[in-house]
Fold this sequence. Notes:
With 454 residues, the chain is α/β, with parallel strands linked by helices. The chain has helices spanning 2-25, 45-60, 77-88, 105-112, 139-155, 160-165, 187-192, 203-209, 224-232, 235-254, 260-279, 284-302, 309-324, 339-366; strands at 32-39, 65-72, 94-103, 115-118, 123-125, 184-186, 198-199, 215-219, 402-405, 412-417, 420-426, 436-443, 446-451.
Amino acid sequence: MFKMNKIFCVALLLFSALILQAQESSPAKEPLKIYVFDIKEEIAKPAWLKTQKAFTEASEMGAGLIIIHMNTYGGLVDMADSIRTAILNSKIPVWVFIDNNAASAGALISIACDSIYMRKGASIGAATVVTQDAQALPDKYQSYMRSMMRSTAEAKGRNPEIAQAMVDPDIYVPGVSDSGKVLTFTTSEAITHEFCEGQAENLEELLQIAGVEDYEIIKQELTPIDKIRGFLVSPIISGLLIMIIIGGIYFELQTPGVGFPLGAALVAALLYFAPLYIEGLASHWEILVFIIGVILLGIEVFVLPGFGVAGILGIIMVVASLAFSMVESDGFIVPQANLGQLGKAFALVIISMLLGLVSSFYVAQKTLQSRFLGHLSLNTEETSATGYTAANLSLKEFTGRKAITATILRPSGKIILDNNHYDATAESGYIEKGEEVEITRYENMQLFVRKFNG
């Protein structure tokens, strides 16, 4: 009996030692890495850039979960669709924590997520496609949005009828929405109708409700380059840069030599194309087309008389390069899904160019008259009544006489009068070589002329 007990004790000790060794050799379980990033602004290009960065970094660090911390009233449908597609194709589960609002495009993004959590008092819905002044767009736009909301809800096992009722007020869902009203859920309503997994006041409470215990939260950190890039690609800043590009080129063509306007245009062009090139939208051919377009405009103004093929082709190339650089394309071939985005890009470029030209005309007239910048020009006239004399008073006698332009007046050049050449400046616009002009005045040692119309 004693031997049996002794053998049993030895066996028990050996067994215990093996268990301890196995526990020591087995690796400790790592906490779940959770990548968190914010969408708390308008759904536009900067939000899409943040999303791309988030999914790339989450994948590289081996995150097991991505959480979007959302508070947005919506934004651009095409950008929301890009974010939605990235979420649907993600191999990493994606949750969203709605911290107050997920309206319009924000609702589409939220429904694409695997789980939705909301704070008390938050809301989700109101996804009707509207203009900037909150007017509903025609039904073809609503139809596309209904389709995206419905297909997204189906992909995530949510009620597709409820999803499209958030777009169309005419859709009636028994017991959920009344006809004539666009559907928006509160937190409790979203939970009742399975459009929300639970209510939480913060991320820690969310994870507790979801049963996640051992985790490590990694929050997205935007570098200064990321912030500058996001700032430059926003539609408003892109429009302003286009205005500076066009205005700078216009001013440079109006004045002799190379100066500040051209420098401003070049800097604006660099700031416009650089972030788009880094993002992969703008490619070499678009930048090359832009440069060729500017060169053609210069040739049209400085070399060729009038305004013809070179000028028209230059304008087309500048507009096309600026617009195509905003959209994913293979040369001039644009995927059908991006045609709407291309149309918006052309609209932005054309409107910005027109505003740039109008602003240039206005600034040209007002700058030197400003009390802040008036010191750049003389504020008084040096007249004979106050004791001043001109270098050649006899030229005053030419006022009212006719002459012929010896060179293009752009706006300055040469005229021929009595077989003599004189410097002259056009009162407005350009005057071609060989045109008959009338001398209107002599001021500050300069003859001023206008085209003679008979």
